[in-house]
Amino acid sequence: MFTAKRLGKELQKAKQSLPPGIDLVKADDFREWQVDIRVLDANPLYMNQTFRLSFIFSDNYPIEAPEVAFIHIPPSSSTASTTSQTQSQSQSQPNPLSSGRPIPIHPHIYSNGIICLDLLGTAGWSPVQSVESVCMSIQSMLTGNTKNERPQGDEAFCQSMGTRGPEGWSGWRGGRGRGLKDVRFAYDDDTV
């Protein structure tokens, strides 16, 4: 009950206004939302790129952090969007997904979209956080990055965890029900 009430308030606010470079593209229910983010400064690593974040909420949100990961959408995907801006586009305008949604290259973002950010972990999360504040933190993390590299051990980590796409996770190895909350990161790099 509290989760639905809180997400209802966040959704109402998000539909009215979000910070520049952050767009809500899917919020059909209170289980999963998808948000596009862009880096607005002149960072050459992310110039003219848009990235898609997936937020999966438990029944304990906002007491527990949502599961947040980037999702890869191939170019020219026909993924549905719920924003009125996308719905109202005429056929003469280019498809906003024609360039797709890549996973950003960053020392704290694995190539399967999983983000190593203390804010998303149990110890770093606070119920005062919101979808908007998480997006702003990730946007800031990208803005400040100067390294065009993945985390150490990226390939092995991604093979063990699977891949998140527009329709959900695939390729999980291990027990049933395994999710992002099962990942335990050591947050030791404040330089990126």
Number of strands: 6
The number of helices is 4
What is the name of the CATH superfamily? Ubiquitin Conjugating Enzyme
Q: What order do the SSEs take from the amino end to the carboxyl end, as H and E?
A: HEEEEHHHEE
The appropriate CATH architecture is Roll
Mean pLDDT, nearest integer?
82
CATH class: Alpha Beta
Strand residue percentage: 15-25%
State the helical fraction: 10-25%
**Large-scale geometry:** globular
Radius of gyration: 16 Å
Question: What is the CATH topology assignment?
Answer: Ubiquitin Conjugating Enzyme
- Major sheet characteristics: 4 strands, antiparallel
Provide the domain count: 1
How far is the first residue's CA from the last residue's CA? 38 Å
Keywords: Ubl conjugation pathway
Protein name: Ubiquitin-conjugating enzyme E2 W
InterPro entries: Ub_conjugating_enzyme (IPR050113), UBC (IPR000608), UBQ-conjugating_enzyme/RWD (IPR016135)
Domain UBC core: 2-189
What keyword list fits this structure?
single chain, 192 residues, alpha+beta, 4-stranded antiparallel β-sheet, 4 helices, 6 strands, globular
Write a structural description:
- The chain has 192 residues and is of the alpha+beta class.
- Helices cover 21% and strands 16% of the residues.
- Strand 5 and strand 6 form a beta hairpin.
- The longest helix is centred in the N-terminal third of the chain and has 15 residues, at 2-16.
- Mean pLDDT is 82; it is low at 77-95 and 172-178.
